[in-house]
Design goal:
The protein folds into four domains: about 90 residues, Rossmann fold, CATH 3.40.50.20; about 70 residues, 2-Layer Sandwich (Dna Ligase, domain 1); about 130 residues, D-amino Acid Aminotransferase, Chain A, domain 1 (2-Layer Sandwich); about 100 residues, Phosphoribosylglycinamide synthetase, C-terminal domain (Glycinamide Ribonucleotide Synthetase, Chain A, domain 4). It is about 30% helix and about 25% strand. Helix 7 packs antiparallel against helix 8. The protein is globular, with a radius of gyration of 21 Å. The N and C termini lie far apart (about 45 Å). The chain has about 425 residues and is an alpha+beta fold. The protein binds adenosine monophosphate and glycine. Glycine binds next to loops.
Length: about 425
């Protein structure tokens, strides 16, 4: 079959590598893709939000199956656009992707269906939000309702900081209309874990767990980023916690969406915090995580196309998800200066050194093929993933592998997976 993948980051490269291993797939297209994806797929220069062009391309090329990677097109209804044209596309429809597209929606859903999450209030008026802050304990968390590139969350230590936060989200519109409505919620503490789940609308099956490192600097300092590295599995996500989450979070979320007439088919990403009072939902995403996919998918034994088709055919209950009994660590190689200003266009050396080693992967994020070779073309440039028998071994392997790849301006965190030592 012919598969089209929509997106062009490290996550889509990880999806493409898994799709390339499916016995059902003869040809992969990716829109827009990147230099790494271009080695296993034919990249087409169509943007992820250009639904008319994407649908037209899929019809012309007789694509059998489309996978939508990023949040923006899912939330804007990419899957609905494909379905309206009689095409099969994997991912939640617009009415279900709202679970990521609106934090107020997801918080209200959790409240209505008793799914554990932080206490909160929602505001559309900045005066009311500011007045409410007078009654709060600090720190407190402010969240823009809409999509904000993962940056719409402000943790405020004092009332003054929180008032400034309301100003920048709701009045200065730092994230545009995403801040027309905000959620103010209780600050929680604990370890974070990401659990990505396949969903068919009724059945939900969690994949192996992972943990992301969102801050730019070592020791979780500096600005929030799209993610600087991941490890999988999380040693803190025990069997008891898994059992609790299945009973109180995953299945109830699936059932809640169904009860609301918003059947969720696709990947549900549960961002959890393991608090003293048990696991609670920090956020939902309607897609694979980036860079969570880069450590979870290389460990999956199933044929990804078979699992995705089972989701779309509402037969996920017949599938047994299987993961390798090992570990993986992904270290993101970024351009120095990310997530603010950085230079790009530097030639990258050593990529094939990593690729040719068994159990090692280089997932491209911001790269471009030029006459000089593959060059840096974004803030997050590459994700270097390595497997190992244990998390520590995987971490050592991943950091060894980062030495093989060089480009001017290369920046990475040196403590990805450090938490493993405390397990
Ligand atoms: P989100 O985009 O909602 O996952 O938030 C981004 C990050 O902000 C999370 O990964 C947490 O580190 C942090 N965060 C979000 N909500 C809370 C909360 N209620 N308490 C503490 N930290 C939070
Ligand atoms: N790594 C976090 C995310 O994909 O949202």
């Amino acid at each position: 079959m012919k598969v089209l993948i929509i997106g062009g980051g490290g996550r889509e490269h990880a999806i493409a590598k898994s799709v390339a291993m499916s016995k059902h797939v003869d040809k992969i297209y990716c829109a827009p893709g990147n230099a790494g994806i271009g080695q296993i797929a034919e990249c087409v220069n169509i943007g992820v939000m250009e639904f008319d062009k994407l649908v037209q391309f899929a019809k012309e090329k007789e694509i059998d199956f489309t996978i939508v990677g990023p949040d923006d097109p899912l939330v804007a209804g990419a899957v609905d656009a494909f379905e309206a044209a009689g095409l099969r596309a994997f991912g939640p429809r617009k009415n279900a992707a709202i679970i990521e597209g609106s934090k107020a929606f997801s918080k209200d859903l959790m409240k209505k269906y008793n799914i554990p999450t932080a206490a909160y209030e929602t505001f559309t008026n900045p005066e009311d939000a500011t007045a409410y802050l007078e009654t709060c304990k600090f720190p407190i968390v402010l969240k823009a309702d809409g999509l904000a590139l993962g940056k719409g969350v402000l943790i405020c230590n004092t009332k003054e900081e929180a008032k400034d936060g309301v100003q920048s989200l709701m009045l200065d519109k730092q994230f545009g209309h995403a801040g027309d409505r905000i959620v103010i919620e209780e600050f929680m503490t604990g370890r974070e874990v990401s659990v990505l789940c396949f969903c068919d609308g009724t059945t939900i099956k969690p994949m192996t767990s992972a943990q992301d490192h969102k801050r730019a600097g070592d020791g979780d300092t500096g600005l929030n980023t799209g993610g600087m590295g991941t490890f999988s599995p999380s040693p803190f996500y025990t069997e008891d916690i898994d059992a609790f989450c299945k009973e109180h979070i995953y299945q109830p979320t699936m059932d809640a969406m169904k009860a609301e007439g918003r059947d969720f088919v696709g990947i549900l990403f549960c961002g959890l915090m393991l608090t003293e009072d048990g696991p609670k939902v920090l956020e939902y995403n309607a897609r694979f995580g980036d860079p969570e996919a880069q450590v979870v998918l290389p460990r999956m034994k199933n044929d990804i196309i078979e699992v995705m088709q089972a989701c779309m055919d509402h037969k996920l209950s017949e599938v047994e998800l299987e993961f390798e009994d090992n570990a993986a660590v992904c270290v993101v190689l970024a351009s120095n200066g990310y997530p603010l200003a950085y230079e790009k266009g530097f030639v990258i050396e050593g990529l094939e050194e990593v690729d040719k080693k068994e159990g090692y992967y280089v997932f491209h994020a911001g790269t471009k093929q030029t006459e000089q070779g593959i060059v840096t073309n974004g803030g997050r440039v590459l994700g270097v993933t390595a497997k190992g028998a244990t998390l520590k071994e995987a971490r050592n392997n991943a950091y060894e592998a980062t030495k093989l790849v060089s480009f001017e301006n290369k920046y990475m965190r040196n403590d990805i997976g450090k938490a493993i030592d405390e397990a």
